[in-house]
Input
Amino acid sequence: MDCQQVKRSLSEKIGALGLNLSEKEHIHICADCRIYYERLMELDKYLKCGTTPIIKETEFATIQKKLDEKIGRYQNRALYFYHLSVRYGISLTAVILLLIVSLIGKSGKDIYQSKPADHYDTLLTLIDEETIDEQYIEAVVNGYVQTYGINSGEMLIGDLTPGELEYLKSEIKAGDIFL
Amino acid sequence: MEQDNYELVAKAQRGDRSSFDDLVRINKDKMFALVYRMTGNRDVALDLLQETFFTAFKELKRFRGDAHFSSWLYRIAFNRAVNHLRRQKLLSFIPISKMGKLEPSYDMPDNPGLGELNSAIEKAVGSLPPKQKMIFTLRFYEQLPFKEISMISGKSESAIKTNYQKAIEKLRKQLQDFR
Ligand SMILES: [Zn+2]
Output
């Protein structure tokens, strides 16, 4: 085992530290990895001092209540649409779908051709959506990383320059919600 | 635990609401720990927890049982948390006049009753990029195998290990003042 292999496998163990025979042998003869291991042990000890976030019973009761309400509304809506679809059949669905598709297409053009003020309002509307399109996000982030060469993970919390933001915005199309 | 989940999921998929409630109760602490550590904000974490379970309710029929139920939930919770962080990121680019006051992105160090070391740990974990934060939380605190984390995040096992090592290195640097 070389030092890099040893250090990597040591890091993987933090939280469940225990050495196998070849690691023990290596650490015995290699001061660098021995120090690395000791530091990891210390880190392990420190991190375990952290408190586990616990949800209080009162908080959980609130969540249950909200969840009940949401599920109730969801089921009623599902039931309503079921009755509706039974009553009016596929033709109504087709009409609604066509309408939605044409609306989405229209709003897509509007968002990025509108004035900046409208643009922000549209963004505010978009961010309330629940959609997550992982493949799309992956594609945008990859494009971003190729252009700017930064770690895609860091991008989420690092600060973007105006130029970088513009690039990102230009990649966002309506209907593709980057959130 | 997973055995309990397995039987409850089967019942809940057949429409048994009390089984779903049991699933919520059994899994709430683990999911809360993840979203809290990812967002660092208690109120936000509670909202995300509720959204996670609502999404799970809606999507339950699509759960095929090829992964642990808790892994499936973790994935939903992770997506919700990343959604939130992206939303925060986007909101930070919208002029404050449009927004009112922005929500603070990380409030853990202000929590009363936390020792200095605790705050430092939570702040250090909180400063990791979202994916590393998730990987670190699931591995270090929840002791999940790398393989399972790989299934949850949709990334390869070796990418998970690399990210875990990166997270450890960052934490080690950030917490070295406490040695
Ligand atoms: Zn060595």
Summary: Confidence is low (pLDDT under 50) at residues 108-133, 149-159, 173-179 of chain A. Chain A touches chain B through 47 residues (CB under 8 Å). Residues 21 and 157 of chain A are 40 Å apart (CA to CA). Residues 57-113 of chain A form the longest helix (57 residues).
